[in-house]
Amino acid sequence: xxxxxxxxxxxxxxxxxxxxxxxLVVARTLQQxxxxxxxxxxxxxxxxxxxxxxxxxxxxxxxLGYHGFPAVICTSVNDEVVHGIPGTRILEEGDLxxxxxxxxxxxxxxxxxxxxxxxxxxxxxxxxxxxxxxxxWAGLGMARVGARLSDISHAIEEVVRAAGPFGIVEEYVGxxxxxxxxMSPSIPNFGSPGRGPVLRPxxxxxxxxxxxxxxxxVGVLSDGxxxxxxxxxxxxxxxxxxxxxxxxxxxxxxxxxxxx
Length: 260
Hints:
Elements: H1 13-36, H2 43-56, E1 60-61, E2 73-77, E3 80-82, E4 96-105, E5 108-117, H3 123-140, H4 149-163, E6 167-168, E7 174-176, E8 183-187, E9 204-207, E10 210-212, E11 218-220, E12 227-229, E13 235-237, E14 240-243, E15 250-251, E16 258-259
Antiparallel strand pairs: 1-4, 2-4, 3-12, 4-5, 6-10, 7-8, 7-9, 9-14, 10-13, 11-12, 14-15, 15-16
């Protein structure tokens, strides 16, 4: 699960500052997208909002053209877990939408995702999203100097398992990030603590739990991108980019200055 052969990129303080700028671009863009996500709006329109936001902030989209991906954000609705392609789909009242966004500033990446309910949804769906977000923050809190990588994974799993019979997607995980969007190490959202590389100052990690209301089994649609649950139960996805620093975890994609 944790390869010792792949080097984990260590950033300087100046490089983390550039990642913070990229993270702020992502945070502002997600804020704008969430602000216009409503019944009757298409996911393609959300993509246009995101693209305009990135351009206005002088950033480059991380996702557009990545292995052929055709949009600047991922929009995944209801039973779609991740990597949904924006298009003509019209959002409906009560839908659960996750939006994933990445941006590049001076060669450095930021990556984050949020889940939201369109209008008013069910209490069960709200709890699914809340549990996933709480699990994310538990994992972020373990991104500390001297901890092991799997301490993050274990903290995420503990929150989800304690909350009820939710599924944790295993095929799609968090990742290192910095001069590239996807780098070593992989960060599962489950596992025993005390395993994997020791966390060092200058590491940057994209932590992203994906949690389902039912089975954790997933598949990919014929578009080659959109990941869906096999039982068609709904899923939530939350993500932040966090830096490991001597002062504690620094959440680079939060709107406010967050050091845990």
